[in-house]
């Protein structure tokens, strides 16, 4: 009966209750969706870090990271591999030779980290191959006339391997892609002009297009003008094992595009045998051994196990290598907490306000209930239930809306490409696929109910303080 | 049999610096089956006396015994239970629960008293029939006239079979026809079920029906007259 009355009381002022419920719904949705978007950004960044850059655990000679001496190889690598093979959670192992050097072309040069990889073994651990920009090569294909190098787009730009040319074909593509013909016509003077950098093209566009057009279509135009001559070469220069300068020309066998500008700018991947030959490292000598685990969640548990089994070597997991990312991942719970607190605080204020109004305008009725024998516990329960119903209905609606929107945007993604430069400089994708765990929803549900209960305490106490004689006398 | 005994009861309010004796040394008793009205000018203490009898308020002096309970000895929570068990209230403004139907309003106290569902329904039906509202079981208060709402309030007050009914200005908001109908019903219940009714009123229509008229002035009883209205 009390439950039934409480539920009916919620709906006696339909407009007010619906307004509060709508406010709670919007608040919960906004909080959950923002949380899902932030979460997806971090999850995607971690996935990229693990799957494209670091994997789960890396083992180095203790001196290797602090010194560029090629002689700091892993002693007895076969023992390391044997240890890793005996850990059931380790699914794949890869060995690498790593050399710091300079990459150069006739137009520019920059410092890089050259990684010699076992191409086939590497594919089992990393998904970088899938990041190959179409039309830039075939990864490490069958053409072995020249040493092959797989490099990042950012590096390719720095070495002026990528240029920007608006051909007749690319202008046609722009028009087909939805750029108005009036804008395409304005671009005609640039047809077949070659720009060595994105900045120069952007400057040229600024002279032809309005600020609004440049902002709206600039990205599409730069993409259409993006040009790469297949088979371009770079010179890699580095010190060999005897500290003699050496180097060779490498044919670009592909350019990869990730969300991490720094990784793109620094990384050159070449076949291990080529690098071993050039550096003079002996067969079976490696600087790094990488282990992939069955699940990322195993990282914290397996790392100490490997460390203990391999004394004298540096064993680091991705969290220890990318401490900033690990810190963000670890802080996710705190970020969740802050978001939840904000959502729930807004909810609490709304509920307290509504319930207080509801109690104060029912003074006479509450006095009557007390007069005819409804005890304090029942009055308190009734007010509590009203508050919980308001919170739960609004919270549930908010979560349903969030679930639907997250479900849709989780598939289609949210395109933040306008902000891609800023985001990718920090390694975050400009395409977000919002995601949130079921545990978050469950926790939020529980917390919404608790908030509903806590929010009702003050209004319910107000109701209990009513003197039935005065309440019955009042209007 | 005495249902209510009031012995030298005082109720004093301290309104800023002024002391107001709303009830000033009243001694009075009510018998089972009384159909009594308390009359007097505004501020004479009628409603205060009714509140004291109903256990809604505590006297500052004297003693009230209702159905064997000394009200001054009851804790606030016990007073609430006492009211639920022994007193039926009818208010001037009906005071039905707006979100409940007539039937649910009548069954409300029975529900608080944990009556079994079937017995509760039977009693609710019986009470609504006794106030002539058998056809309005599912009507909300907003769908009923003032007179009908007050009849539901009477049915609610009577449903748990209290010792007596306290009715504070029950006809004040009713037109003549509705007031007469309501009083007919109350008289019949008084006659048939020997239910004790104690009214506080200004309404001459109620006074005409009463068999006992108690007049208060300045918190004191100035007359207590039994009238033969039969």
Number of helices of chain B: 7
SSE order of chain B: EEEHEEHEHHHEHEHEE
Q: Would you tell me the overall average pLDDT of chain B?
A: 90
What global shape of chain A is seen? elongated
Which CATH architecture of chain B is right?
Answer: 3-Layer(aba) Sandwich
Structural class of chain B: alpha/beta
Provide structural commentary.
The complex is a heterodimer of chains A (475) and B (230). Helix content of chain A is 56%, strand content 17%. Chain A is of the alpha+beta class and 475 residues long. Chain A has 3 domains: 2-48 and 325-473, no CATH class; 63-160 and 230-311, no CATH class; 162-228. In chain A, the strands form 3 sheets. A 6-stranded mixed barrel of chain A has the order 2-3-10-4-9-8. Chain B contains 7 helices and 10 strands. In chain B, helix 3 (102-112) crosses helix 4. Chain B is of the alpha/beta class and 230 residues long. Helix content of chain B is 35%, strand content 30%. Chain B starts with a strand and ends with a strand. The interface between A and B is medium-sized, with 21 and 24 residues.
